[in-house]
Amino acid sequence: MFKVGSIRKVEVKNFVTYSYAELFPGPNLNMILGPNGTGKSTMVAAIILGLGGNPKTVGRGHKVSEYVKHECDEATINIYLQGERESDFIKITRTLTAQDRSVWFLNNRKVLAKDVVDCVRQYNIQVDNLCQFLPQDRVQDFAKLNQQQLLKETQVALCRNDLIEKQESLIGCRENHKNLTESIEKNGTKLQENKDANMRLEGKIENFGKKKKFLGRIQDIERKVAWLEYDNYYEKMSETKQDLAKATQIYEKHKSAAKPMEKEIHQAKKAISDLQHTNSGVTRSIRENETSSRNYMEKIDQSKEKIREIENEMNERIAVIEQRNQEIDAMAGKIEEMKVAQRELLNKCGNDDEVQQKVTKMTGEINKMRRHVTELENQRDALVSAKQTKVAQLRAFENERNRLENVKQQRLNYLQRIDNDAYQAVLWLRSNKNLFKDEVFEPIMLEVNVMDPKNSIYVENVIPMRDRTAFTCCNKDDMNNLIKYLRNEKRLTVNVLYAGDRNSTPFHSAIPIEQLRKYGLYTYLNTLFTAPEPIMRYLCRTYKIHNIPVGNAETNRYYENLPKQISVFFSDTMKYSVSYSRYTNAKSTRQNEIHSDGGFSISVDVLHVERLATQIQELRSSFTNCDSQTKEYDTQIGLINDKISKIGDELKYIHGIKQQVQATESRIAAMQRRVQEMRQSGSNGDEIRNQARNKMKKVVRAIRQISLDLKNTYKSLSVLIVKSQLNSIKIDSVRRQAAYLENKNEEARRLMKESEATMSQVKEAYANIKGQAKAALQKAKGLSNNFTPDDEGFDEFREVHESLPSEMGPLQDEKHRLNAKIECLNTADDDEMREYEERVEIIRNLQETVDRAHVDLSKITSRMDQLREEWLDPLRQLVSEINTNFGAAFERMGCAGEVSINPGDDERDFSNYGICIKVTYRNGEPLQELNTVTQSGGERAVATAVFMLALQELTPVPFRCVDEINQGMDVNNEKRILDLLMETTSLPNTSQYFLITPKLVPNLTYTRTTMVHVVHNGPFIEQDRKWGVSRLCNPQGVAIR
């Protein structure tokens, strides 16, 4: 009979290695068997992920995309849980995509992940509880749980959330209890300190009472004085108010007298403005006439200047005629001299035919020598060009070599980032190689050079990081010394390897690569990189790199057909690992996608570096020959150029004389043309003088007309000046009248300002006295509880007030006498008094706080005792039952074990409570606590299995799942555990149980409630249509949809 919440069916599609698979479990023990790698644990992963778990719980990955079958886009998990009735099922569906997304369905209805988690929680299914789900990769985690974690997991597994809540409440109460106790101690100490401090001030406080009485009497005197001062200020304020009324009357009188004069002054100013406006028009006309007069005068001056210019022009033209005649005579003489010089030059160089023959001969020689120079220069330039080409090649080779050498530094920097200890060790080794007998190699990642960086991904997926950062020694003594220097003295955490015997048999590939090319494999891993021979020997011996072939995309099609000798190989994107079952010799292939971490992608091609060095040396040697040939060409070119230069000098001399003759002839012709032009362009002086007289007459007639216009303008200007002077006289008269009125008005305004200032002073005095009176009144009322002597509220002060003198002198004397008495008293000052009163308040508050804390502490103690009893009693009962089941199981196996509660060092520290498991597997040995140090892996697995079985009868969970817990056990313990499991799971009302194991133990006694599921998965399995998977895997024949 299936319990509510138990699993009726698990269905997966494209999940890990399965394209499609179904599991129909029984209601009790379900043993899932199959060879390693067939997918047993995959069903456990499907249950965990399908019921809301995450990949971390499974322990085999961190992303859901890792559970999608290779070359598929999504995977689907369907889990059917038993409902309240036999025919009711809850279907939970989870679709996983290659993009790390999940889609959830509940009874074929799309929901959120939270809805699925809420659904499974109501059936007490806890996929993250190791006491209910123990995946293969988490078996060791169970043994690593400390006592406190084990107690929590046990309470969760037993679905005793009430106990968990009570423990958390106890922990909170304990924390509050601890805080209250500390608070009481702290406040009690502070309370006593304040009481002691106040006791030291009690004498001064008593004198303070007397001082307070004297101060009260002084306050009465000050009150009387304040009221007397107010009365004085009030009388002064009345007198000042009368003065203010008189000052205001005088100010108004002067203000009234000033108003009529202001009107007369305004009328006078208006008359001045009108006269000024009229006079401005006259003044404008005067300026216009003055401007016209100046223009006429300027025209007359310009006419006179024009007459002078005509005279100057006439004189200049006459002087030019005279100068021209002199130049004609001089040029005629110079022409004769140049003709004589021309005849002399012709005599020196001979006739034109002789000169031409000589020039032609010399020019031919120069051209021949220049052609020879050009040929030599071309040959030299070819050498220089070839050298420049080689220089460019040399620079390129050197840059390439520097780049390759810089790669070594990049790899060293990468080592520093990933392992600083190894980096520091490399720096030390480079300075201390003399300490070792044989060669010591730096970390493998610095010595190995992948010839093609794209192949580094294969090397990175074979050589682990611990070996990449390890130093390699060829001598064992060197290895021991290096470990001593680096680990013991330098305190550096580094790995050191021994390369092995040099005389060992060389490593060769088991199968020639030519026989593997048909599978897409083209080379072995050891051919992809170079390394020192000791390192290569170590890698071949340790990782068999000489037998790891590398292929391309075609390898993914033929990986099942490779020879049996190949156990590890690569395609373009996958790493394949082949193993064979010890029982059936069945082949199991694991494939993992390869990823690069960049560790070997920074590589140096050593052969290429050596080729570059040879080429650089050859180029530098060729530069010497090139320089010597270039120097020889330069010498020959220099000699020929010297000959060309001498012949050229002779040609220049001949051409120079010829050019002088031609130039002289040209100059003679030009001067003759100039003389002819000057003689033809000549004119006489009389004609020039007549032309000048006619021009001057025209200018004189224009001056006469301008003089008439100027005379008329002067007449108009005289009339306007007289009008302007009359207007100025009128303006001065009106201004004097306005000035008289303003002076008279200024006197009246002065008297008004003086009276206003007097009034302001009186006002200010009145305001000051009023303010002083108001302040005195406020002071007096402040000393009288805000009452005046006329108020009924003043009666409490009236008797003392009337008994005091009404003169200021006696009152001040009495006040001084009281102050003298106060000074004679040794009293507490204001700060001490304030501190005393504050401490009184603090003492009262602290006493109340301590009292309340004691009450709260008593309540918390009672509450904690009650919760402790409510939590610990049922917990002890549960642990006692677990211990009974646990001990009985171990006793049946011929061993001993117990489960108990460990309260720790402080029974009130409820966070430190835990479950202690003790076991012994040998007679005569004491019980020892279960941990990862004392017991072996198999012994821990036995204790884990027995502990989970001990929970079986006490837990209400619908099912449990344990994956290969029997791995690591010996045959006897394995049979004992399985017998115990058979017996426990066959009891009535037990939960459904899943046990994943790779094999069946011989002679095992099976119960009728046990169901064995055999995983049929792999290349040797027939298609299910030949034997009917549905009929065999669903023996109940239940239609679950």
Structural class: alpha+beta
Low-pLDDT windows of residues: none
Q: What's the arrangement of strands in the largest beta sheet? A: 2-1-4-5-6-7
Biggest sheet details: 6 strands, antiparallel
Count the strands?
A: 24
Please state the CA-atom Rg, rounded to the nearest Å: 63 Å
Distance between the termini: 19 Å
Q: Report mean pLDDT, rounded to a whole number.
A: 80
Helix content: 55-70%
**Relative strand content:** 5-15%
Number of helical regions: 23
So what's the overall shape? flat
GO molecular function, one term: single-stranded DNA binding
InterPro entries: P-loop_NTPase (IPR027417), RecF/RecN/SMC_N (IPR003395)
Organism: Zophobas morio
Domain RecF/RecN/SMC N-terminal: 7-998
Concise description?
The protein is α+β, with helices and mostly antiparallel strands and 1041 residues long. Helices cover 62% and strands 11% of the residues. The strands form 7 sheets. It has a 6-stranded antiparallel beta sheet with strand order 2-1-4-5-6-7. The chain has a 5-stranded parallel beta sheet with strand order 8-22-23-3-24, sandwiched between helices. The chain has a 3-stranded mixed beta sheet with strand order 9-11-12, sandwiched between helices.
Describe the structure.
With 1041 residues, the chain is α+β, with helices and mostly antiparallel strands. Strands 2-1-4-5-6-7 form a six-stranded antiparallel beta sheet. Strands 8-22-23-3-24 form a five-stranded parallel beta sheet, sandwiched between helices. A three-stranded mixed beta sheet has the order 9-11-12, sandwiched between helices. Helix 7 (202-349) crosses helix 16 and helix 7 packs across helix 19. The longest helix has 148 residues, at 202-349. The protein is flat. The model has no long low-confidence stretch (mean pLDDT 80). Residues 7-998 form the RecF/RecN/SMC N-terminal domain.
